[in-house]
Structure formats: C-alpha cells, structure tokens
Design brief:
The chain is mostly beta strands. It is about 0% helix and about 35% strand. It has no helices and twelve strands.
Length: about 160
C-alpha cells in the first residue's frame, strides 16, 4: 500500500522531504524522488543493518522482526541457565555446559552413604558424615583384641569380648 502525497491531483516530484511536507502532511518524506506518507516504499528502504532482524516495509512503515535464534553478541543468548556458558558465533547462539555445575542436590550424589550431598551456589559439596562407615576398615579402634565391624546402618561396632 504505497501512499503518494498528491497536491492538486498530481504526484509531487521531490529532492528533499521539505518539498513534500504540507500543513496536511507534515510527516511526508521524499523517497526515490516521489513524495510519500511514510518511511518506506519497499523492504530495502528499511534495512537497519542488523543481521538479526527481518526488515519489511508494511503500509509505508518499517517493521523489524527479530529472527529467532539469531544473535549479535552473547547477551542475546542468555538462556537463564547458570550451568551453561553462552556464546554468539556467526549470529548463532551456542551453549556449552559448565563443568561440575549443579542446580539441585540430586545432581551431586557421589554414591557414598557416608557423605551428605548438596548443591550450593551451583557447586556440589560432598561432606563426610561423622562416625559413618562403609566397611570394617573404617572402624579400626586400634585395639588388637576387639573385632571391628560396620553394620548395615553404617555405624561402627567394636566387639571387645576377646579383650582382657
């Protein structure tokens, strides 16, 4: 829908916007040598030099629509995930996992029943549980006469029946 400003029934030729502007059409523009009520005649008149926008002329107005997945810098790629590093290369976002990053305690299990597994500030912490054992070697009380064992509740037991 190209709109041409008419004065006395004829299209105006112009060199400058001021050649087109009247009291009735103060926003008129000179585009391609013709007076025009709007900022564009064709899509090419709307190029904003941004590789991430689709530039269109619609009803004499430029419209820039963001191209999904396109980026001009890593700030355009923020996925809100603290466990990824965002980069923008050739106008495309890339996401790389941050090594050893966690978001929940369940991601930190070291399969050791004698540690408390937590995720804090996106880092795992596997804190030893006091007086916990995995096998009899964790329970040595240094008494040669006692029999040291680790029970199913991961607690040490010291049988001193052989001790004087």
């Amino acid at each position: 829908n190209d709109v041409t400003v008419y004065r006395e029934g004829a299209a105006l030729c112009c060199d400058w916007a001021s050649d087109c502007q009247t009291e009735d059409f103060p926003e008129a523009q000179c585009i391609g040598g013709a007076c025009f009520l709007g900022e564009c005649l064709k899509d090419g008149d709307c190029d904003d030099l941004n590789a991430c926008t689709a530039d269109k002329c619609s009803g004499g107005q430029c419209v820039q629509e963001w191209i999904e997945g396109c980026c001009n810098g890593k700030e355009d790629c923020n996925d809100g995930d603290p466990c990824t590093t965002e980069t923008c290369d050739a106008n495309k976002c890339a996401y790389k996992p941050v090594p050893a990053c966690c978001k929940a305690d369940g991601e930190c299990s070291d399969d050791n029943p004698c540690t408390s597994d937590m995720c804090a500030d996106n880092a795992c912490a596997n804190t030893p549980i006091p007086d916990c054992c995995n096998d009899a070697s964790d329970c040595d009380d240094a008494l040669p006469c006692s029999v040291d064992t680790c029970n199913v509740q991961h607690q040490c037991e010291h049988d001193k029946t052989n001790c004087p």
